[in-house]
Design goal:
- The complex is a heterodimer of chains A (370) and B (536).
- By secondary structure, chain A is mainly beta.
- Chain A has a domain of 154 residues: 7 Propeller (Methylamine Dehydrogenase, Chain H).
- Chain A is built from 1 helix and 30 strands.
- In chain A, the strands form 7 sheets. In chain A, strands 8, 9, 10, 11, 12 and 13 form a 6-stranded antiparallel β-sheet that branches.
- Chain A is globular, with a radius of gyration of 23 Å.
- In chain A, 43% of the residues are buried.
- Chain B has 14 helices and 28 strands.
- The relative contact order of chain B is 0.10.
- Chain B is 23% helix and 35% strand.
- Chain B is globular.
- The chains are: A mainly beta (370), B alpha+beta (536).
- The interface between A and B is medium-sized, with 26 and 26 residues.
């Protein structure tokens, strides 16, 4: 009996250790929960708990309607491009307290951003693509666009710590997972040194030469790749070897940029039949891409086939996905986010903005928080 | 995306302005001498004149009156410039007179100035259309003259003001900026350069004396032909008062007073209230000052209006219209011959006998008898020394019919929203196939508008699925006037969409011998236009 008791105690002790180890592992990797973060026309940020389908927090932003919405990796601070695309603002997600502000204009040079907004992997520097115009007394002079780099530590009156020129038509910018490269996605994808802006390489889109395909028309507005670190976007190309009347004359595809490996690829999966605004890759099955507009579509990008397509209640611009790949969230456009089961593409839930205002083109990001 | 309507409202104010209705004649009389001073006072703080007295930017561009007014409006909207209504009118007048367009330069773009419904552009350069014709008409640049440097400044203004322009469809597929500032700039400067022979010879042309009585003829789609007189008085500062005395073919009478300003020696801009509705007139004066022609249309509902031709009754025999133009064989008709000093023998050619004739302030009213076997085809009409080739057409049976415009846009409106509906007015136009007997060839003969019975339907399967025909509006079966639905999301529709739709409009016409003919037009009912301007 004594022996047995001892053994049991040891087993329990052992079990306890195992449990503790398991807990620790969870806390450091997967215990942070997924939240959905988006902005609205009413100049607010909304944080939802998508598992519970509930609104967790609502924050009024300085500077109004945001377009780009970028959380820090610890989920504590959110940076937005807003103020009619003329400024960057940062707020604490817990308190709503403004902690960062930078105007993109300087003296007689008016700066405007668009969707080029990225946070360095160490959360210390905020990068923005800025389109600049010198306002002379009786004329406007368009200047070379720049990437402006801000130190988030500079707080509410931040000025760029570095600037470097970037190609016109650069839309989004994203860091490689190791932080050593900055991908500037525009007419082509330029690979830049984030310290100097020096171009190290370029992946051709417009300047590409894919057999029998025109340069892709790519819609690169939304950033919704944080679950996989694979940035994706819908592309539309024309077959140069077919008459325009051929059903296959126009092709819809997906562009992928793997921010871990640096791999880029474009895969056409159907004759163009529907408008698609944005897409996201499934973290649980990296052959699967989900796309959205007035339909939700599931695409197998390895087989280059459309797996399933369903009609939505209305048009949605943005899409994101749960960490386990079981649910997709479609948002943007109006005031509701709908939840769909990735296995069946059936609607299983919804959340709405309490003030009824439009999300419009605001990004809808996943935030990982404890 | 929602936008404010203040822009539209400011154009409405402008509508009265450009026609001179709100600026006093005394302010205008001084316009010539004070033009430069007005610019110095209102614009000089930024556009400071150089040593030669030139105003930077302003002195390097030529534009239509509408174009100049749009510029001043932009100075107000973008740069916070405050200009009184009188100063705005005087500056626009002065700049249009001294840096305007010659008649031959504005001629290809009358459709834009006249807001012709359903007008299609046909600029021969497809790249130019994609570069400069996708947000507004190519008439907007086409009604301006600049050198390459000035065109380039305008392109800088565009991209400086709307940095996202480069990311839009038809921009992001190309190196828009490089193309715009090289190829497009060169093409613009070549097509529409600052200096021109036409302007050199027109420049300084003074507005002729327009005082007196004019004979007027026109056609208003949905209502019919009209004729009458227009009495013009005044003239100081090129400002005129006008009294209209018109009657329609259906017997209704229209009397109204209006006011106008003539710009650049030929650009007549007027306002007149017709049946309680404010209308604008955009007309050109012929070089000899004898004929005015153009269109009048609602200040708000510019899709509703009429074409107009007026001739000054100064004693030079001139015939401008025979109404109706189409005469059916074997029938008797009353025809209005509109013009100046119409005296003497009236002829419509063989087979048409004039059996009665009465003199009118606008010309001559005649009764004609068309022989049953009179030859089909166009006829020269003459009265004494005045004649009009193809002034009338004799027909026996209508060969075919088309609907005009062949493609049209209507816009939802009202419904508690800030903007009114925009209607679509259709007409059924009859044709003879001509000598070759084949439809759609060069020798076809136009008979003008015919009475029709109207209906509308879904344009295609997609429209049918969304029940566009049910929601997007309705057409008056007699007049061909389509009234679009109310603005705003419709809870009864799929996706709670607006009352937009893709429709076909169908006209049924009797060919004159009991046989039905039909024709269709394509009508798109779309959302409101939130931003507007004189030249779309």
């Amino acid at each position: 009996m004594a022996f047995q008791f001892k053994t049991l105690a040891r087993r329990m002790a052992l079990a306890g250790t195992v449990a503790a180890v398991a807990l620790g592992a969870l806390a450091s990797t997967a215990s942070a929960k997924d939240y959905l973060l988006t902005g609205s026309h009413s100049g607010k940020l909304f944080l939802f708990d998508p598992a519970k389908r509930t609104l967790v927090r609502e924050i009024s932003l300085p500077g109004g309607t945001p377009l780009g919405v970028q959380p820090s990796s610890d989920g504590k601070i959110v940076y937005v491009m807003n103020d009619k695309l003329g400024a960057l603002n940062g707020v604490e997600l817990d308190t709503g307290k403004p902690v960062f502000h930078a105007s993109l204009s300087d003296g007689d040079v008016r700066g405007k951003g668009f969707v080029g907004l990225a946070l360095s992997r160490d959360d210390k520097e905020l990068y923005a693509v800025v389109y600049r115009t010198r306002l002379h007394k009786t004329e406007y002079e368009v200047l070379q666009p720049e990437i402006q780099v801000f130190s988030v530590a500079d707080g509410l009156n931040a000025k760029p710590v570095r600037t470097f020129p970037v190609a016109r038509q650069t839309a989004q910018i994203h860091f490689s997972t190791d932080g050593s490269k900055l991908y500037a996605i525009g007419a082509n994808v330029d690979i830049l040194d984030p310290k100097t802006g020096a171009k190290q390489d370029s992946f051709p889109l417009r300047d590409g030469n894919r057999p029998n395909l025109s340069a892709p028309d790519m819609l690169a507005i939304w950033s919704q790749h944080s679950q996989t670190n694979v940035w994706t976007a819908p592309i539309f190309s024309a077959r140069t070897d077919l008459p325009q009347t051929d059903p296959a004359a126009f092709q819809t595809g997906i562009m992928q940029l793997d921010l871990a490996s640096g791999q880029m690829r474009m895969d056409e999966f159907e004759n163009t039949s529907h408008v698609i605004f944005s897409s996201t890759l499934n973290p649980a099955n990296r052959d699967e891409v989900y796309t959205v507009y007035t339909q939700l579509s599931k695409v197998n990008i390895r087989d280059k086939t459309l797996v399933k397509r369903v009609e939505l209640d209305h048009t949605y611009y943005a899409i994101n996905i749960s960490a386990d790949g079981k649910e997709v969230y479609v948002g943007g456009t109006m005031d509701d986010i709908a939840v769909y089961d990735t296995a069946t593409l059936s609607k299983i839930g919804s959340m709405s903005l309490p003030d009824g205002s439009d999300m419009a083109a605001s990004w809808m990001q996943i935030v990982k928080r404890d | 995306m929602k936008r404010t309507v203040s822009v539209t409202a400011s154009w409405m104010v402008g509508a009265a302005l450009l026609a001179g209705a709100s600026a006093s004649a005394s302010a205008a009389g001084a316009a010539e001498t004070s033009g430069v001073k007005m610019i110095e006072e209102n614009c000089g703080s930024c556009h400071t004149p150089d040593s030669s007295g030139k105003f930077p930017r302003i002195s390097d561009i030529r534009k239509s009156p509408e174009g100049w007014d749009m510029s001043v409006s932009r100075m107000q909207r973008w740069h916070g410039v405050t200009v009184s209504a009188e100063a705005r009118a005087a500056i626009v007048k002065y700049l249009s007179d001294t840096q305007g367009l010659a008649p031959s330069e504005s001629e290809p773009f009358r459709y834009a100035l006249e807001q012709q419904p359903g007008a299609m552009e046909n600029l021969p350069d497809p790249e130019m259309v994609q570069m400069c014709g996708r947000c507004h008409s190519t008439a907007r640049p086409g009604l301006q003259r600049r050198d390459a440097a000035e065109w380039k400044r305008l392109i800088n203004t565009h991209v400086g003001q709307w940095p996202t322009l480069e990311f839009q469809l038809l921009s992001r597929d190309r190196d828009w900026w490089t193309i715009a500032t090289t190829t497009t700039t060169d093409t613009l400067a070549k097509m529409w350069g600052f200096k021109s022979k036409a302007w050199d010879s027109w420049k300084g042309h003074k507005t002729p004396d327009l005082k007196g009585t004019w004979a007027v003829a026109g056609h208003q789609p949905g209502k019919g032909d009209y004729s009458g007189t227009m009495t013009v008085s005044g003239g100081a500062g090129d400002r005129f008062d006008v009294r209209y005395d018109l009657s329609y073919a259906d017997g209704s009478v229209l009397k109204a007073d209006g006011a106008s300003v003539v710009y650049t020696g030929y650009e007549w801009r007027g306002t007149v209230t017709l049946n309680g509705v404010e209308n604008r007139e955009v007309m050109t004066l012929s070089a000899d000052g004898k004929t005015l022609s153009g269109r009048w249309f609602g200040s708000v509902n510019d899709e509703l209006g009429a074409d107009v031709t007026a001739v000054k009754t100064d004693g030079k025999p001139t015939l401008i219209a025979a109404q109706p133009m189409a005469l059916k064989a074997g029938e008797r008709a009353m025809v209005s011959l509109v013009g100046d000093s119409l005296k003497g023998a009236v002829s419509f050619g063989p087979g048409v006998t004039v059996i009665d004739s009465e003199s009118k302030p606008w010309g001559l009213s005649v009764v004609v008898e068309v022989a049953a076997r009179a030859a089909e085809g166009p006829r020269e009409v003459s009265v004494g020394g005045a004649s009009l080739s193809k002034g009338a057409v004799v027909y026996d049976a209508v060969d075919r019919v088309t609907v005009e415009p062949p493609m049209m846009i209507a816009r939802v409106g009202d419904g508690g929203g800030p903007l009114p509906r925009h209607y679509a007015q259709f007409e059924a136009i009859g044709y003879l196939n001509g000598k070759d007997g084949k439809p759609g060839t060069a020798d076809d003969i136009r008979l003008g508008a015919l009475p029709a019975s109207w209906s509308h339907d879904n344009f295609d399967e997609a429209a049918k699925e969304l029940e566009d025909a049910k929601f997007a509006g309705s057409i008056d079966s007699k007049t061909g006037l389509f009234t679009p639905g109310e603005a705003g999301p419709n809870p009864l529709r799929a996706y709670k969409t607006n009352n937009v739709g893709n429709l076909k409009v169908v006209a049924q016409v009797d060919n004159g011998q009991g046989k039905p003919l039909s024709a269709e037009s394509h009508l798109i009912v779309t959302v409101q236009r939130w931003v507007d301007g004189w030249i779309r």
